[in-house]
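tool_call: predict_structure(chain=1)
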Amino acid sequence: MRTPEQILRESITIAVVGASRHPDKEAHTVPRQMLRHGWRVIPVNPYVDEIWGERCYPTLGAIPEPVDLVNVFRPSADTPPVAKQAVAIRAKALWLQQDIMSEEAREIAEAAGLDYVENYCIAVERARSQVTRLRSDTP
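tool_result:
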């Protein structure tokens, strides 16, 4: 099992389930920060066409490219189906944001060999470990 820092260092593409178009919400600002620091961030939200200039997908399964890390901004009760989708798309890790926890999601992810983080902000870990990806097209 990789540490949160290792997951970030080894991930390139992050799918954000529950990404928000509203700039005052953490589900908007946190993934935007990851985008600014060089990750490929793909928003997943069935109600929005585009966030941060990136095409939005209704589900993880609709994303037409490989995903390294699934980052979740949904209520804890909604996370087991997300874990199943993460397994189905062969993501390498599932990360539930601050205050989001699910024993069932953990069991699903770990049984399939995914690294798992819960109740921890991805942007806090990025800042703590000072991880940045280099991309020439970062906004």
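agent: Residues 26-36 form the longest helix (11 residues). Proceeding to next step.
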